[in-house]
Amino acid sequence: MTLLVALGAQACTFDTQPDCADCGRIVIVAVGEPASIVPPLVQETVGRDIGGLIYEPLLRLRGGGVPADSSAWIPALAEGWEGTDSTVTMTLRAGARWHGGLPVTAEDVVFSHGVYADTAVGAPGLPALDGIRVEALDARTVRFSFAAGRPSPLYDIAYGIRILPKHRWAAKSPASWPAETDPAQFEGSGPYRLQIWQRGQYLRLVADTAAAIRAATDTLVWRFAADPTAAATLLLAHEADVMETLITPANTARVTADSTLRVERYPSAAYGFLAFQVADRTGRPSRFGDLRLRQALGFALDRQTIATAVYGPGTAVPHGPVSQALWLHDAARPVQELDTVGAAALLDAAGWRRGADGMRRRGDVPLDVEILVPATSSARSTLAQAIVAQWRSAGIAGTVASVDFPVFQQRLAEGRFDTYIGSYLDEPSPRGLAVQWGTSGIGQLNYGRWSDRIFDSLLTHAAASRNGTEARLRYRVATDRLESEAPAIFLFAPQAVMGLNTRVQTAGQVDPFDWSAGVVTWTKRARTVRNR
User: Fold this and answer.
1) What is the pTM of this model?
2) 99 near 188, Cβ under 8 Å?
3) In CATH terms, is domain 270-492 a member of 3.10.105.10?
4) Which CATH number fits domain 56-169: 3.40.50.1980, 3.90.76.10, 1.20.1250.20, 2.160.10.10?
């Protein structure tokens, strides 16, 4: 018996040693495949994340920085800059080179700005470049000129524009760019270069050994999944190491329950809302042109309970169109809570009276509200159903119309909706509010066609701020006006929850506006295996 025990103990003795065959590779799973990774063509965040590792901006904004503060800007492709009230002159980084070895020049900067300003390309943020003139003073010096007093010129000039090599793209028609997948064409100056892109399958980046910032991990692989559940399944199956945002509480719970995985939470740059069709395409007010009705529909909701149930702990109810990532967010400010008495008073005043069945009517017309949502978003569908349930308690009949995403977009553009649940991503500058909610945004992202000249004026005043303190004060006045006028009910500002294999080691805070920029510092530690 003693011998058997000894033999058994010997059979169960293991030595441990590290297995690091894949330490130089991190696999990232994303929901959806980008149509392009050429920066001026990018519409999806996945394309931005990948292209941002290949191509550099002239300057970067320090984490949490306010664009109006000159001290918030740090060097990237430009190593120095100086300016007057109507010019900014930048000097490119000494020794800056494209992956193929040619130097990056001021002519590349002039070319890139021309691409972004080309209406045929249709780059995001195109209107922000209006009135900017760009000229190369010498091989490493470029000057930008604009009207005196232009607000936050560094944001327009340096932040959203990635510099492209003129020798690669100038001879090609922009119409051919979206279909491009040849790795040699995607020559940048950033820490990674494209090695292969198998559309519909994966994309692989490899570290550029001559880059100014040497990446800690040699290879990054992007895999593309059809939906958040499929993406999380790849993470759980160890076929991916990172999922940038798990999106749903169900996915978060699945990952949290796995001891080989972990989650990291950080402020999301997204905010969500239920927007009203305030006026039709001719400008004629709809029934939601009545402020009392819009406010009552908001007062009748317990927004915090709904938001937390759908998007999980840490979700905030925003003050207007403000994500948790934006420097305008203030978690200490109280938000409008459920107010059934206030909602009832407003509805009564607007002529919507309860009938014998408890539901509200104005004359013979019932108060029924349709909520339009895209069928691709289970979270928005769940949110809409919760809103309908709470409205019913206030005598408001609600229905949910779930349609395919192209139909959703078409109906928004044509104004064929009562309300819809939408979500926008913040930029570090709130200038996008003009397109989303301002009069100038009608025909663009202001699908509800709400127009308020006071809000427009406040937004213009805020954009002219010369420092961070002034910008915070002025933009809050503008967003408070927007919230009080209620063109939408602002519903949720979630936290992002990243899922990672425990072997992946991150460093520092995640930048919610450019999370992949931090990947250059990430590493993957060895797996411990046991041998007899």
Assistant:
1) 0.84
2) yes
3) yes
4) 3.90.76.10
